[in-house]
Write a structure and sequence with these properties.
The protein is of the alpha+beta class and 318 residues long. The protein has 5 helices and 9 strands, in the order αααβαβββββββαβ.
Length: 318
């Protein structure tokens, strides 16, 4: 009986051990399964984050390339549209845009290097990005070459601009010198023209007066000279007559001198062949000058003595 009880006890202990082992195995399996799921979730999250990072890097690189193309177009078109740099000169604006392109290229180089490091650390599922990275690297290198060409062109343009500025300064100095010379010559010509005009005007200026002997004598225009005891005295123009007592005329324009008298005489002795008398009945209306040069060559003064009544004295009266 005691032996049978011991067998039963051992059987119970063995069953309990089996149950405990089964429970321990279940718990272990549950824990491992849970850890495995957590690891899978973490791995998937890491992969998603990695892919998101790679995508953001590609977007940033493409955005930089788009900005580079825009700046390149602005440089090639010589900035047709106003922008924030409109206050700068052309060469300063070009250099500013080139500096910005170089900054974007350096950032792309850094992003591509970072992207390459990320791809190297991950599994083959990211290998499909390698060709894209290679293409981007080629684009960046091509743009770098274009930037260097733009810089070379800018330097050449700057040299041309400097030469043009120097040439402009030389031309401006020459124009200023010529301008001063022209001004000086113009003043000389103007002075000469004024002198010529004054001389011409003086040569073309003449004076005439018409009046009775008494009125002209009282104005100290004429006087009697010569003769003996008052006989054979002649009436002559006084020396240095007062021009204010005469009518001033331009001999190039005035060709008729009014007389309006039946009896008259020229005191100043103009050449009779140089003029005609226009009559109306017996009245001499005016003298018409037919040869101005001959008429005025002896004197620039013309004195006509008229008789206003039968007792008036003429120049020929003795």
């Amino acid at each position: 009986m005691k032996i049978q009880n011991k067998k039963v006890m051992w059987l119970q202990l063995a069953l309990a051990g089996v149950i405990l082992l089964a429970l321990a195995g279940g718990v272990t399996s549950y824990v491992l399964n849970k850890q495995n799921k957590e690891y899978i979730v973490q791995s998937q999250a890491a992969i998603a984050a990695q892919e998101q990072y790679i995508t953001s890097v590609f977007d940033r690189i493409e955005s930089n390339l788009a900005k580079i193309r825009e700046k390149e177009s602005m440089i090639q078109q010589k900035f047709p549209q106003p922008d924030d740099l409109s206050s700068l000169g052309p060469e300063e604006r070009i250099q500013s845009e080139i500096d910005f392109i170089e900054f974007l290229l350096e950032e792309n180089d850094s992003l591509i290097a970072s992207l390459n490091d990320q791809i190297k650390e991950k599994d083959s599922r990211l290998g499909r990005y390698a060709s894209t990275v290679k293409d981007l690297k080629s684009k960046v290198e091509a743009y770098q070459v274009e930037v260097e060409q733009l810089i070379a062109q800018k330097d050449a343009l700057q040299r041309d601009l400097d030469e043009n500025v120097k040439a402009k300064d030389r031309l401006t100095a020459r124009v200023d010198t010529l301008g001063r010379t022209v001004t000086e010559k113009s003043m000389v010509i103007k002075t000469q023209q004024q002198l010529i005009a004054e001389k011409d005007s003086a040569m073309s200026t003449a004076y005439y007066v018409v009046g009775t002997y008494k009125s002209l004598r009282d104005k100290s225009v004429i006087e009697k000279e010569g003769g003996v005891l008052g006989i054979n005295r002649v009436i002559e123009l006084v020396s240095n007559p007062d021009e204010k007592q005469f009518h001033q005329i331009d001999t190039r324009e005035v060709m008729q001198i009014p007389v309006n008298a039946k009896r008259w005489e020229l005191v100043t002795g103009q050449d009779p062949s140089s003029y005609d008398i226009q009559y109306n009945d017996d009245l001499a209306q005016y003298i018409t000058i037919t040869d101005p040069q001959k008429f005025w060559e002896k004197s620039k003064y013309l004195v006509i003595v008229v008789r206003d009544n039968e007792n008036g004295e003429l120049a020929a009266s003795r």
